[in-house]
Design a protein that fits this description.
Chain lengths: ~260, ~350
């Protein structure tokens, strides 16, 4: 599924995240390449979100996180925002913005002319299938519609990246129903393959991981324990160790592994 | 439906001009438009030969400074309210909430009751401003930790500080003599009656600085509405934005309160009206709030000083009388949304 000799976009070396004196997360060396769709998996409280928060610049950390070879902390905040987009679980707004205005917030780190901006916003909304919602009030949209609008916002934000951008999915599916989950995953998978961008997501449903992702990073009790192709990482032994669940496996008609 | 920004600016500006004109000719002393025109033009062209008629004294010493004070204080309070509501992502925030008003009240009352009579011209506004700023810093540092600023703790600390300030004011009231008591009560209810032209340059300066600096942060404030981490992901330096905005609000409200006493609800009501008219985008919200804030305070002052001529009501009474029911309606709407 993945080509060889891909360019590394994100490298994580000797990462340590602490809350006070308590060690929350420790990893030795991870590398994420362009065109890959990574899932960060693990039981609740294992440290998945901590990992994602560290690479999105939300958590302070020790060690190195290199984005395109340059330490994350050394990036100018606006420049980093043009290269790293984060789609959160959900975004609530207490004020009556229209969907289009929410997408326009993605222009914050960009400096586009009015025409360019208009075009980019429209294009991203069309790609996320939410252009018809442009004039609707965001707080009145359904959860699925809000998430499409948010994705369009994040796409606008990373649309002018000079180097290959990263899209982080921070439990982005958790508030979505089955149909919207698959719709969103299909869309980002396509994005990943067509535009060769890197996607790293915290996903809870392991069958989603097996169907859509290329690689998985398994985190257990604050330590990165295994990484590699999804089908290898998500084996019976690992699932029992991390989730305390004896899994059975099946194969889908399309040939990917299923966990029952 | 939203009304275009330019149309609203034109409408607010023209209405403000109308009410400025109305304020010039309305009051205990009758002054016609032509008298007013004569006084104003002659005071501009050649000050030395200006005849000190009753009309010119009333206009130049009383009404014009008072009109300017209303416009500037209204502008500052409304801007501060709009910024705080965005900062706290809560449409119910108001400058009073973060403790500036109550802190400033303590400062002013100490100046009235304890300090010598002769110092009052400067000691009241000076101490009000300093105490307001101090209280805000205290509240803000309570709410700040390594992880960032907690809005909930900020609001609760503001409530605690207001209670503490209330106790301090009660204590001072107990020791005040009759003369001071009257001054104290007027100050607590807000009044523009003591407008002096010497005070206006500082207020104008603060107002312009606030408008210009806030206008440069409109994109960041918009991004912040989505949430702090979302704003950070969009490249906004959230902690710096919050700290700067809170300091600016404290300075603005501290100065405004020092010259006019506690005038409540302007900061709450005005941004709401503007959002209803043209949406929540700060790029339009802030300048329109500035305009409407000035105009509404001018109208309130016109009502306060004419409704019982020749006596006058404290302006804070008028704004609270209109603002408090508005606040309750907002609460009811919020309740409907959440429960």
């Amino acid at each position: 599924m993945t080509a060889t000799n891909q360019k590394p976009i994100l490298e994580v070396k000797n990462l340590q995240v602490k809350a006070g004196s308590k060690l929350l997360l420790e990893t030795t060396k991870e590398q994420f390449n362009e065109g890959e769709f990574w899932a960060v998996v693990g039981a609740n409280g294992a440290g998945k979100s901590t990992f994602l928060k560290a690479i999105s610049g939300d958590n302070s950390y020790k060690g190195e996180i290199l984005l395109h070879g340059k330490e994350l902390k050394q990036w100018n905040a606006m420049d980093r925002a043009r290269h790293v987009g984060v789609l959160p679980q959900s975004s609530t707004l207490s004020f009556a913005f229209k969907a289009k205005e929410v997408v326009e917030l993605g222009l914050t780190p960009l400096s586009l002319s009015r025409e360019q901006a208009e075009k980019e916003v429209e294009e991203c909304m069309r790609r996320c299938d939410c252009l018809h919602l442009a004039d609707s009030f965001y707080p009145l949209l359904s959860g699925g519609e809000q998430q499409r609008v948010n994705l369009a916002r994040v796409l606008v934000q990373i649309s002018q990246a000079k180097q290959t951008p990263v899209l982080l999915l921070d439990e982005a599916l958790s508030a979505q129903d089955l149909g919207h989950q698959h719709q969103l995953l299909e869309f980002v998978t396509q994005l990943c393959k067509q535009h060769n961008i890197l996607i790293v997501g915290v996903l809870h449903d392991l069958n989603h991981v097996l169907k859509y992702c290329d690689k998985a990073l398994l985190i257990d009790q604050g330590k990165a324990v295994q990484k590699g192709n999804v089908a290898d990482v998500l084996n019976a032994e690992n699932i029992e160790r991390c989730w305390k669940y004896k899994a059975e496996f099946a194969s889908s008609s399309e040939g990917y592994k299923l966990i029952i | 439906m939203r009304i275009p920004f330019n149309l609203l600016v034109a409408f607010f500006a023209l209405s403000t001009l109308f009410f400025v004109g109305l304020s010039i000719v309305t009051g205990a002393v009758n002054i016609s438009f032509s008298d007013a025109y004569g006084v104003i033009t002659s005071s501009f062209s050649n000050r030395e030969t200006t005849e000190y008629s009753l009309a010119s004294v009333v206009l130049l010493e009383l009404r014009l400074p008072r009109i300017a004070l209303a416009l500037l204080v209204g502008c500052i309070l409304a801007q501060s309210g709009a910024v705080l509501q965005g900062l706290f992502r809560n449409p119910l925030a108001d400058p009073g909430i973060i403790g500036v008003s109550s802190g400033a009240a303590v400062g002013a009352i100490v100046a009235i009751v304890v300090l010598p009579e002769a110092w009052k011209v400067w000691s009241i506004p000076g101490l009000a401003f300093l105490a307001g700023l101090g209280t805000t810093f205290l509240v803000y540092s309570l709410a700040r930790s390594e992880k960032g600023t907690s809005v909930v703790i900020l609001l609760l600390a503001g409530v605690a500080m207001s209670a503490l300030a209330g106790a301090a004011i009660g204590f001072m009231t107990y020791f005040a003599d009759d003369n001071n008591l009257r001054e104290l009560s007027v100050w607590q209810m807000g009044s523009l009656a003591k407008a002096k032209s010497e005070e206006l340059p500082l207020l104008l300066f603060v107002c312009i600085v606030l408008v210009v600096l806030f206008q440069r942060q409109t994109n960041a404030l918009n991004a912040l509405l989505l949430g702090e981490s979302e704003a950070r992901h969009m490249g906004i330096k959230v902690e710096r934005l919050k700290r700067n905005a809170i300091i600016l609000v404290a300075i603005g409200v501290g100065v405004a309160v020092a010259y006019s006493g506690i005038i409540g609800f302007v900061g709450l009501v005005v941004p709401h009206i503007v959002r209803m008219l043209c949406g929540p985008n700060h790029r339009f919200l802030l300048p329109l709030s500035a305009l409407l804030g000035g105009m509404l305070l001018l109208i309130s002052d016109l009502v306060a000083r004419t409704i019982l001529t020749p006596a006058e009501l404290p302006i804070g009474l008028i704004t609270s009388l209109v603002g408090a029911p508005f606040f309750i309606v907002l609460l009811l709407r919020e309740r409907k949304r959440w429960y």
